[in-house]
Amino acid sequence: MPKERIFIAENEAETALNIAAKLESLGYIVAGQADRGETAIQKVEELQPDLVLMEFHLQGQVNGLKAAKHIHANFDIPVVFIGAHADTSTLQSAVKAQAYGYITTPLEAHDLNSNIALALYKHSMDRKLRASEERYALAVRAANDGIWDWNLKTNEIYYSIRWKEMLGFKEDEIGTDPNDWFKLVHPDDQKQVQDNLAAHLKGVTPHFECEYRIKHSNGAYRWGVSRGLAVRDAKGHAYRMAGSQSDITARKLAEERLAHDAVHDALTGLPNRVLFLDRLQNRLERTKRNPEDLFAVMFIDLDRFKVVNDSLGHAFGDQLLITAANRLKQCLRPNDTISRLSGDEFAILLDTVSDINNARRVADRIKGQLITTTLLGVVERSPAASIGIVLFNSRYSTAGELLRDADSAMYYAKSMGGNQYQVFDDTMHTSAIELIRIEGELKHAVERNELLVHYQPIVSLANGKPVGAEALLRWLHPLRGLLAPQDFIQVAEDTGLILSIGEYVLRTACAQAKAWREAGHPNFWVSVNISARQFQDKNLVEKITRIFTETGLPGEALRLEITESVAVRDKDYTVKIMNELNAQGVHTSLDDFGTGYSSLSYLKQFPLKVLKIDQSFIQDIQNNPKNESLIAAIITMARSLGLEVVGEGVEKVEQLTFLQSLLCDNAQGFLLGSPISGMEISKLLEKEFPGPIGV
Question: Taking 50 as the threshold, does the pLDDT of residue 597 lie above it?
Fold first, then answer.
């Protein structure tokens, strides 16, 4: 029984009910009904029936004729008209509406069933015809490729006009000889084409397909792919073969570009780490066969490159990397390999050296090339680099081992102050292993609560009393004793442990400050250093707010110290965070002021509260009179901006007296107090202070 869904569009409700009853008796499903044209369109769109029976003179703003046209055009659903009259004019209108039939009333069940069946069949055939036409159109478009048809009995080939045009030839410039094709194939590819053709003609392969280079009429070679299929007789012998030829030059160029990009650095165009290690491994294997054939590996890292990125931006950082890459290439021979490994790290394979002195001379050339002044915007920069060198010896079995040891030598050069080279020895490898060990132990230190917070007093120069304390991290190592931050903080920063460690220091310092205030020192505050990674943490303010809630410490009891390089990394972000902190009463302090070259241009834009003069200026005032003038200028400038000034690193009475003479607000340093525990600070606060110190 049929299960097609039929929709009825009829003016008279009684007639519609009669039609519905007949349809159901014939096994059809009545999908819905409507008595107006616009309603019929809406419901047909929603219900998507298989066929619509529509009153020719359907009432409504949209009559039956217009409704049928809309349904056919927009929903591809066949419409069969119902009407009392079937005169010539009516039938012509039905044809224009692309109706699939016209049934006169009263409806007979047999006529109704026949008309519906024919309409559904015709609609099904129309759909198949459209699909066939679409496939044909696609085939025609695909025939944009060149077509060839080879009569193997006469050994003649028909080449389509498009086949010839693809190669820049006119119709009469290519005949029917197969050699007109094969002589254009690149000499290096001819054997492959002939072998693939022969394999298919013999029945070895199910079809012929081959990619090759073929000569254009302008003399240049283009990439093409030919595909074909043989027609065989009853005995399986091929007597005809036809196929197509496509131009795939663009695809081949793209593939070559992708292959190149996969092993080259996008910024500098140099080989990347993957290609460098591959070439290094090949060079290593060559030397294993001939131990006297020596080579060397150099690992290069630009000194203070991060300062350029942080202060001038990544665009200027990229410019510096490109300049450095070009200068490094100028120091090498054609058979040497230079690679950009990542960031500001480069590696060089010196393909042939007689001894380590050859590599040393190249390192000297590199230093001389890099140091040339480079203009980055309005800033002049003289790049320098730390270079590690390793010479092949028989204990190396992989490229990774050589690069690892060159890297270790580079780090040793950087730790010695940079702008120099170091040749690898085994002690450097031991140092690298030590760093890895410290990283593992530091993770456990966090878990085992081995980290301590000490506090260095910050003293008012007006009355000699401690007004606050700077929180300073210490690591109570189970074997090495008490370690200062310089022994482990960089490892924490590099590994990301600084986030959890920094939050621990903040929480501990805030809890301690709350205890001091409750012990009778209501105005005492604590200052905490914030690292670069902490400051970039989007949840920093939220964490501080949560700590305030947990400890009950008011915002004005906390000061956060950030360095110049951190502050200028993203000016808008820095201003946003400082404003959010200020809203909670937290004072932000610029630490180590004067060590960067971008401070003055940004200082007035930041909502700072405190300026800390770097200790290098204060500790050198006796040896460098210019520092006295500079410190005086900094304090004057800070006062004009409404900033509080703290002098760091005060170790001598003369330094303290000088700061007092300039009316500096506060000071800290070993002369005024060393870092001590929170309990010792509590004892210190209980002491009586006679008045201004050093007077």
Answer: no
